[in-house]
Amino acid sequence: MRFNSVGFALSVGMALIVVLIGFTLLSAAGLAGFAAEDVARANEPEAPKTHQVSATRTSVPSPAASPEEAAAIAAGDALFKGNCAQCHAVNEQVVGPALAGISKRRPLSWLLPWVKNSSKVVASGDDYAVALFNKFNKQQMPSFSLSDKEIAAIVAYIKSEEGRSEPMPPADAIASAQ
Ligand code: HEC
Question: Domain Cytochrome c spans what residues (predicted)?
Answer without folding.
Answer: 71-162
